[in-house]
Amino acid sequence: MKAQSKIENLTSQGKHVCVGLDTDPEKIPRYFFDYPNPVLEFNKTVIENTSHLAAAYKINFAFYERFGASGFEIIEQTLDLIPENILTIADAKRGDIGNTSMMYASSVFDHFSFDSVTANPYMGYDSAKPFLDYKDKITFFLGLTSNKSSSDFQKVKLADGRHLYELVITTIDGWNSNRNCGVVFGATNEDDLNRSMNILKAKYILLPGIGAQSGNLRSVVNAFKNSLHTDYLINISRALIYCSNGNDFPDLLQRTISDYHSEINNS
Amino acid sequence: MKAQSKIENLTSQGKHVCVGLDTDPEKIPRYFFDYPNPVLEFNKTVIENTSHLAAAYKINFAFYERFGASGFEIIEQTLDLIPENILTIADAKRGDIGNTSMMYASSVFDHFSFDSVTANPYMGYDSAKPFLDYKDKITFFLGLTSNKSSSDFQKVKLADGRHLYELVITTIDGWNSNRNCGVVFGATNEDDLNRSMNILKAKYILLPGIGAQSGNLRSVVNAFKNSLHTDYLINISRALIYCSNGNDFPDLLQRTISDYHSEINNS
Q: Where do the domains of chain B lie, and which CATH numbers do they carry?
């Protein structure tokens, strides 16, 4: 199924929660260590107890790559557990010169069969094109990120008065002929988000920063509702997947995603 | 050995060639397919025939990751073949929020034991700090890259009249308390390089863009010689590792790196 169809099907059902699989063995309930592959078993439990409400699963490559080759096997095995109708996101912040980006695109889309990827726009169009050439896959470009230091460069003022991140988001419109562009916009930047709704149109929006990073969920959701922009994903990683350390973990996963889902739909 | 010591030892001997291991099975001589692991055997031949003159080996993650888990095993096996005194560079263009960058840093420095990494500065200081905290490792931040579209954002004019890449390179000076910052500067940007020599001081410089990308080697080397800046690495990937398709490959590797080495030292 096309990535665009997946996300649109799910958001039209009011599903906007993206589950961030930032799985850290030091933070997962101890009972998973009774299994031969604790990280994979943990991911399985998260998926089984959230897939009824999840719009996407975002696999943060850093948390797997740190284990080298075996970590990449866990990514492959985790992808096999995700229901076919739910969007998968390779959160790898890619971006390199053309022939290298082509390899990265082939890696995430051909080898791993992800539906979408996150990419860093700093190197410009020719670094993005190999990803965009996969018409049925979505590439989420970093616009304004959720971390404090996003102000260092992304919020720098340009000669024309805009912030750099506004130029980036606007430029992406020219890259969107396949309607497969997305933007990463940190939910921690509430005022910037409200000011940017106009330039976020016609792109898929991935919003990290809710939960452990303290973005205001209600305010973010209202920005989208007020703009009639429905194709947005609210990423929740730590606040969801580390909701409990005990045997009540599966139940609490269900309750936590349900709470986020309700808050989004009742905002 | 500290990464800083490695690079300084080698450049003080006039060694500046960084060998880019962008190994693509479709481009390597056919005879490597007689071996059980053609890519690894190819890398072994490249290393054996260039290590007498190489200052660094740069492993471009994209070319390995496309094979998933098995590609990461080849990275590990390749690193074992590189002599201890030569700098190793994880060319992975990293950069993410703090807790994720910490994982990436742990991956390249603890798991793989690379001496250095390339990083994307777009997310700012807190995305870079986990790399910089490894005092004896070098982080090369993208300044101005070698691709054509580097002009899209890196060369945008800021309100203060500078280009974005100049702000990035200058800002990095404030991150350099451990003297472990480097800058990636595309050799294809000859005029910008000459204008930037002043802000490149006291940082290790990695220059892609010579060879297949057509940067002017002599002009780049002279910019450094004129500024008495000795800690620079000229990356050569395709023009070196694909120098021959036949049985003369080992000999031609030696001749090609020797030619680059001589041209650098006689410029």
A: 3-266 (3.20.20.70)
